[in-house]
Amino acid sequence: MSIPALDLSADPIDLTAALVDIASVSRDETTIADAVERALREQLTGFEVIRHGNCVLARTDRGKATRVILAGHLDTVPIVDNVPSRRTVTDEEGDVLHGCGTVDMKSGDAVFLHLAATLDEPAHDLTLIFYDCEEIAAEFNGLGTIERELPDWLHGDVAILGEPTAGLIEAGCQGTLRVRFTATGTRAHSARAWMGDNAIHKLGGLLTTLAAYRPRRVDIDGCEYREGLSAVGIRGGVAGNVIPDEVYVDVNFRFAPDRSVEQAFDHVREVFAAELSAGLVTAEVTDSASGALPGLAHPAAAALVAAADGKFRAKYGWTDVSRFSALGIPAVNLGPGDPSLAHRVDERVPVEQITQVADILRTYLSS
Amino acid sequence: MSIPALDLSADPIDLTAALVDIASVSRDETTIADAVERALREQLTGFEVIRHGNCVLARTDRGKATRVILAGHLDTVPIVDNVPSRRTVTDEEGDVLHGCGTVDMKSGDAVFLHLAATLDEPAHDLTLIFYDCEEIAAEFNGLGTIERELPDWLHGDVAILGEPTAGLIEAGCQGTLRVRFTATGTRAHSARAWMGDNAIHKLGGLLTTLAAYRPRRVDIDGCEYREGLSAVGIRGGVAGNVIPDEVYVDVNFRFAPDRSVEQAFDHVREVFAAELSAGLVTAEVTDSASGALPGLAHPAAAALVAAADGKFRAKYGWTDVSRFSALGIPAVNLGPGDPSLAHRVDERVPVEQITQVADILRTYLSS
């Protein structure tokens, strides 16, 4: 199969369409990686380009004071009759590009590719990272592979992920903690309920506490974070005529990045102190990931915010930015497209957002 | 395979052992039914004997004022190295017969068979019903088959089931009602919990109410019934990062036989009136079976109680006695063996209980 040609100097809207038209469902990214690699090798000047699996990496080494990392994944979720791309202009939605990956995240990739090829004199050294397998289990994530196998490629002062944010800078990310609360009791036939000790009956206070909990809203570096404490699963019961001897509730705490995972667990234990000290339930952490401080106070990040006219907001979900944050690199998401349209059959992006993100980044990277 | 010989005039302890030694796991009762049928035909006088599938039925028609039904199932739960029977005498437990069915309920069957063969002049007409498939799903129950296909065999004034009661009369049975309470909400990503409406959080009040509920104890015909209201299952949740939009709790109400199923459901709705009227949950009946009044006020039943020196108690669980109660026939359980040892590998009966039950019934049936 011949390698598709990509014109990096074309309008990033057209470049987005060209990328969408190269199907690249997770674990099937060879063709798009070939196309990106060939375009980078043929159309960039002053960049070192390497290929690693289906990751394609490029960087300058001009001795600038700061290095900016631009990172985007090349894969998409499965295609559902939404490739190739198509463009429509309607009164309701204006000029829109439709197709799998238009939002998540080939429009972001297109902006990065276009700028790398067309910026005359970047003010920063640049590192481009295009990676595979972001949409599937974390163990396959190409950025994780780079972190383990080519760690020196992740040095930088600011990292920008082109994940969809509708053109707004989203900074940092919240942490997540999952705690399993388990109540135990004694089985008995339900016809003789008094012979048993019903585990499910012990959860009333915990659920009432959850319903009454008022999550914190906190400002960090000008970003407002909203925490959340939610039951995400509950399960107990043996049979329709048996007093259950065990039940669990999984509680997910999404916490602002001014708490560590440990502090987050301390907080959860405080919230349920009454149930825990009464011995009604036990608590066990089953999953956790630390948050990422927005890091917008860093000068290189502050310049990015200035280029975006000071518009930014907190990122609530967990994304690959936290990989950079864990390395001490301020990292933001910035890309075209409404994230709520990602992974949908009717995935589509207003083309003006592609232009807008390209303009913000051109300003930032040139100054 | 030859038909095993049973000596009905032998001591019912030995007859129990002989019955235990004929393996008869549910759906494999042909051999034991053959043996019982042959013994009844050869050793009873004045009885009509019929075979219906693996049920064996016999009855007198002497024109007595009352008819007593003696009913027992021939099947057992699966054997686990506990057949053939063995008998031990120890200081701790005395004289004990071990084996699958010693409790549930070949000792009861043996008493009925022995009395039918050895009572010189019963004071009542007798109907004997030995049936199959009691230990498996209700649809296979041999007594249910008789009820549908040979209903005139279930006429009588009192029915005695030989289920294990440790030699005490257990009268009537409680009803059972299962109600599914469902709470609904709106899904959202748990990183943006405020966009959703958590169904699980709505159950705190319901579980608190359940834990605080004080079940009624009520005396009917001298039997004390103890009700119970118990969560027997709870389930909800979509994924570890999703606000759940649905959760249910299954609540089992075991109610005394002075309530109908409808009255029982009315009571459950009253208990959870706050949650129901607030729209936090909906309630749906998923299973029900009416209870059975003890019916000990009936003269033929009162004579049985007198024969047992006035000792009786309420039956809490649901058993086949309620099939008779539904037909308007007072019915009791009376059999040797501790019901808590039924279905166990170490199933065993103190042989004196076999003698005791035989004595009570001999007195009752002769007077």
Number of helices of chain A: 10
Rg of chain A from C-alpha positions? Answer: 24 Å
Q: Give the integer mean of the pLDDT values of chain A.
A: 93
Q: Biggest sheet of chain A: strands side by side, in what order?
A: 1-2-6-3-7-18-8-17
Task: Kindly report the oligomeric state of this protein.
Answer: homodimer
Q: What is the CATH-assigned architecture of the largest domain in chain A?
A: 3-Layer(aba) Sandwich
Helix content of chain A: 25-40%
CATH homology-level superfamily of the largest domain in chain A: Zn peptidases
Distance between the termini of chain A: 41 Å
Q: Secondary-structure element sequence of chain A?
A: HHEEEEEHEHEEEEHEEEEEHHEHEHEEH
CATH top level label of the largest domain in chain A: Alpha Beta
Poorly predicted runs of chain A are none
Catalytic activity (chains A, B): N-succinyl-(2S,6S)-2,6-diaminopimelate + H2O = (2S,6S)-2,6-diaminopimelate + succinate
InterPro entries (chains A, B): Bact_exopeptidase_dim_dom, Peptidase_M20, Peptidase_M20_dimer, Peptidase_M20A, Succinyl-DAP_deSuclase_DapE
Cofactor (chains A, B): Zn(2+); Co(2+)
Pathway (chains A, B): Amino-acid biosynthesis; L-lysine biosynthesis via DAP pathway; LL-2,6-diaminopimelate from (S)-tetrahydrodipicolinate (succinylase route): step 3/3
